[in-house]
Amino acid sequence: MLWFWILLRITLSPILYLVWRPRNSGMHNVPKRGPALLVSNHLSFADHFFGPLPLLRPIYFLGKREYFTGKGLKGLISKGFFTGVGVVPVDRSGGSAAEEALQTGLRILREGKLLGIYPEGTRAPDNRLYKGKTGVARLALKARVPVIPMAMINTFELMPSGQPYPRLGVRPGVRFGEPLDLSRYYGGEDDPKVLRKVTDEIMQAIRELSGQEYVDRYAAEVKAELAGKAPRPGNDDE
């Protein structure tokens, strides 16, 4: 992945800065070395580009295994791209898959890397912030590493779902907040009430950075309703 990340920085970063002139802030809050958990809102496919853009080290994200299982040339390109931008495949179907995702995240952090998490679990259907899933709290409390809130700005306007290409005339950006002190919750990673409280605290920190309206519902449920489908069965820990 590292060679692809270096290649992207050399070739793509100058284009992104020149064309979209992103507004970024708070990079000093992200440690220059060692593990950290970056928790972010998720508005757009463009988040994968503009979120890590101002940092001098890669961010690894947990992503759907389906990104890596496509067939033919399209599947090969998809697998190569998502591997290159730091997406690590995990099963997100719920149940025991949540434990697999947790262990994968812990492994990445034990390796001293930056791990990015979208607590909403999916891209938001609009420009609002939705309820976080408690898997992010379990990971944060087990790993006991710095937890950095991260807010994507204007990426929904730049490239909303269904938009094949980023729009011109929109200035996206990312804001990194100060590390959250969750030490008072250590040891409570198996208590559902603690996990919900920690998750809500994380989402509040993201909201303060992003300025978004908060919706106390899961984004996946709202997206399913908008599509006229029944919500997929799952649990709070996905």
Automatic annotation (TrEMBL):
Residues 36-155 form the Phospholipid/glycerol acyltransferase domain. The keyword Transferase applies. The keyword Transmembrane helix does not apply. Pfam families: Acyltransferase (PF01553). GO terms for molecular function: acyltransferase activity. InterPro entries: Plipid/glycerol_acylTrfase. Keywords: Acyltransferase, Transferase. Signal peptide: none annotated. PANTHER family: 1-ACYL-SN-GLYCEROL-3-PHOSPHATE ACYLTRANSFERASE. This is Lysophospholipid acyltransferase family protein. It comes from Actinomadura keratinilytica. The lineage of its organism: Bacteria, Bacillati, Actinomycetota, Actinomycetes, Streptosporangiales.
